[in-house]
Design a protein that fits this description.
Helices cover 45% and strands 6% of the residues. By secondary structure, it is mainly alpha-helical. A hairpin with a 4-residue loop joins strand 4 and strand 5. Helix 15 packs antiparallel against helix 17. The longest helix is centred in the N-terminal third of the chain and has 28 residues. The relative contact order is 0.13.
Length: 462
């Protein structure tokens, strides 16, 4: 696999190491080289410093005040002490590793059009579409972490949007330029995949078989790749961030309404039945997930690493609730030393009876998010209709919204309830510019919501 690394400042994060294992010309002589680089990008995304921990159930959840944690790093993260040494190192790792993934796919994208003839069937369009989608996905999370609060934009440069592999430093661009390039990547990814992705011509179950997935397994398990519907989901997420609600609604609804060739819903909301079958991660909702080997050995599976207390849970669930996200996904443990109970989340528990597609899965897009986006972007009546479906699936009594204010108050609760341990709540607080963050007296503001750039990188701000 092409080895790309990032070095100090813009050089630190965005340049190619001179000792790369193979020259690009050799790496990309055959389709296999492009495949290897693409798979390598997914593997990097699964690292603990990215979506294998920190940006799903780890550090990002500390910022959302979701864990009661006694180690020093957790305390400093929850206090938003971004200048503390370990926290600064952690934040820098988010930035550096996201741009490393971007560098991986940039090497591929810089070569793919000139080597179109080496591809079999429609693999050129599929590989290019996925690579563009990954580049957009990672840039968007750089924006969500390090970019401005979208309700409080200002002039000037913010971040680099990197599309080449070069030893020339990549300077920061304006918010408008950054988001324009992001949408351009997404539009091209959609174009590549909408007529070529196997997820449009076979069911997810069928795509888990070798017969449909090609004899070399490359197109198997499309929900574990940035497939066509994942691009639609990302477009919905991005357009909501940008305030383009009609576009966000359009793409969220595409995912909600998606049907396979047999006329069945491609994705469906998880229910009590799924919980009984050991599927607490609701794999039927997964639009895009990462398969993390031996998730049962990870920190999220250890009761003494990421846990919370009853006070925190009471912010989101009333006593006696029938909500399966409370009743089925938390385990109570008594601490003899402190004479108190604490709770750890069980949605990542690897049950012996769980479906194969749920094993070792960390979701990065779920159907529930598309419902929440569509609720926010349509009429109040549409929001009520959609929320009724969510409530029935989660085994709670539906409520009716009478105003946009009531809807937004419920939505912020739902981002916490629904994505506890998945890393989306902090971004919801930031996008909405919320001054109140459940679980802390610290006022939500740009000081909290905008993570500091690595010191050398900030020299390029204009």
């Amino acid at each position: 696999m092409l080895q790309l690394c990032c070095i100090t400042a813009c050089n630190d994060w965005l340049e190619v190491a001179p000792q790369a294992e193979k020259e690009e010309s050799e790496m990309f002589e055959k389709e296999a080289g492009f495949r290897n680089v693409l798979i390598g990008a997914y593997i990097r995304m699964k690292s603990n410093n990215l979506y294998g921990e920190d940006l799903t159930y780890g550090s990002i959840e500390m910022l959302a005040q979701h864990w009661t944690n006694t180690d020093d790093l957790g305390k400093y993260l929850k206090a938003y002490n971004y200048e503390q040494g370990d926290v600064e190192t952690k934040i820098n790792s988010f930035y550096g590793n996201l741009y490393k993934v971007i560098a991986d796919v940039n090497g591929l994208l810089n070569n793919i059009d000139a080597r179109k003839e080496v591809f079999e069937g429609n693999n050129y369009e599929i590989i290019k579409g996925e690579a563009l989608a990954i580049r957009a996905f990672c840039h968007f999370d750089v924006l969500r972490l390090f970019g401005p609060v979208p309700t409080n934009l200002s002039e000037g440069t913010i971040l680099p949007y990197v599309t080449t592999v070069s030893i020339v430093p990549n300077h920061l661009v304006s918010y408008n330029d950054f988001t324009t390039k992001l949408l351009a990547d997404l539009n091209e990814a959609e174009r590549c995949l909408e007529a070529n992705d196997p997820i449009l011509t076979a069911s997810i179950k069928e795509l888990s078989t070798l017969e449909v997935a090609q004899d070399d397994n490359f197109l198997r398990d499309r929900q574990m790749r940035m497939n066509y519907y994942a691009v639609c989901a990302l477009k919905a997420r991005v357009q909501l961030w940008l305030g383009n609600k009609s576009e966000a609604l359009k793409y969220a609804q595409k995912v909600i309404d998606a049907k396979d060739p047999n006329g069945n819903a491609v994705f469906r909301l998880g229910t009590t039945t799924d919980c009984a079958n050991g599927d607490l991660i609701f794999s039927s909702e997964h639009i895009f997930n990462l398969n993390v080997y031996n998730l049962s050995d990870s920190k999220i599976s250890a009761a003494n690493t990421f846990y919370t207390n009853s006070t925190t849970l009471k912010y989101f669930w009333a006593s006696g609730t029938t909500d399966i996200r409370r009743g089925k996904m938390w385990k109570e443990v008594y601490d003899d030393y402190w004479w108190t109970y604490y709770y750890y989340i069980t949605k990542y528990t690897q049950a012996t009876n769980m479906p194969v597609l749920a094993k070792n899965s960390i979701p990065l897009f779920r159907l529930a998010e598309m419902y929440l986006i569509a609720m926010e972007c349509g009429s109040i009546q549409n929001a009520n209709d959609l929320y009724k479906e969510v409530c029935i699936a989660r085994d709670i009594t539906p409520v009716t919204f009478g105003s946009t204010e009531e809807l937004l108050e419920t939505l912020i609760l739902e981002y916490n309830r629904e994505f506890y341990g998945e890393g989306q709540a902090f971004y919801a607080y930031k996008r909405l510019g919320r001054s109140k963050i459940f679980g802390t007296s610290t006022v939500g503001s740009a000081l909290i919501y905008v993570l500091p750039l690595p010191k050398a990188e900030s020299l390029y701000i204009q």
